[in-house]
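Continuing from the previous page of notes. For each protein in this section, the sequence appears first, followed by its structure tokens. Read the first protein now.
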Amino acid sequence: AIQLSNGIQNIVIDNVELGPSALSILCPAMEGKVTNIFVQCVTFPAEQVAECYEIIATLIRRNHALEKLIWRNNRIPSDEQADQLIDSVIDNRSINMLFLDNCFNQNGVNGCRALASLLTCGRPFKTLSFSRNGLSGIDDVAAALATNPKLKNLWIHDNQLNDRDAELFAQALKQNANLHALLLDDNCITSAGFDMIGTAI
């Protein structure tokens, strides 16, 4: 149906297990057509995870109609798979909104590293969302933000950021003229931390 239709622009994939055979059929059908992809609560066969991520990364890289990717509640199993996703997004210059929410907070997969890679890649983004990822120790992200990347909205609410992280953001924001919105609620930042950010802007 996707291959035959020129009108399908939004795809939602929710609460299913997908293996390589299903992905090999589904992913090519979306190329050049689908502008918004929402993938939530999806699992992959344990012995085929690496192959599944390779197929997904290829889809993301090749679908130059894709503008918005929401990858939510899909736990990324390793930094290697995280790199595959991030690199494919960076390579596809049509993507301007990326939501990687509740994906990194297990197995030691480094969400801060992934976010810093996006901020330093030189690509313009409208929105990056990394909520509910257990982020803390945000040094690399703050340093990347200080380079004034072409990013309008950064949503990192509901993590484990504290006042030290807030201070790092405050220093970074003094060097940043592009960011329009920074969402930090539901972290461990006190009023003192928010005061530092408020003073910086």
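Done with the first. The second protein uses the same format. Note its length before scrolling.
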Amino acid sequence: MGNVQKRIPFFFIGQITQKQRENFIKKYKVKIIDSETEEMVTGMAFHWYSGDHFEEMDLVRKTYPNLKLILSESCLEYCKFRSDDVTEGVFSLVHELIGDLNHGMTMFHDWNLCLDETGGPNYVGNFCHAPYLFHREKKRLLPQPTLDCFYHVSHFIRPGSVRIAHSVYTDKIETTAYKREDGSIAMVCLNRTEKQLPVHLRINKKTAEFTLLPQSVTTCEISDL
């Protein structure tokens, strides 16, 4: 392979060995057997099904700072989340995206963009949620809450943005913040609780106050800094 193509665009290690991100370092070292092979690899992909393991991502990023980390699959499986109320699943997915972004993820894509109204077709019966469901009998395309979830990340955190440091006063609020190429800042906030939570934003000696609604995702755009 090295003689045919010197550099592989991405190395989807999750597709080759165990699909989850625990033991990331060990998996990488097993597959990358020499320096020539390592030069061909530009990234590692992972799934989300076995838990956060954000510390493992930190370890990979520290040990191999040039590797791109790609979330390649994050389905909301109906065997784990309710099909009639996907609220819990959607907030789990936002938690995943915020955590991954804060720990070095550079790209993500969803496994299923559109499924039928049952969460299929699926040859093993493992039905899943998707940003769009198509009702076959009614011939209707039904946008789903996960579409809004992805929108907060893909629309506001634009290509070329750089993650910036931030801190929060409570673990009830999850955030990630990026400085965009035009100098503005996008901050995505998740409130998974059933209560309103106050936010006192402070940056460059300027302050602003707002409230996060219960069980909500909010994105703030900050300019004129």
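What the second structure shows: The chain has six helices and twelve strands. The helical segments are 13-16, 24-31, 35-40, 54-63, 87-102, 145-154. We return to this in next week's lecture.
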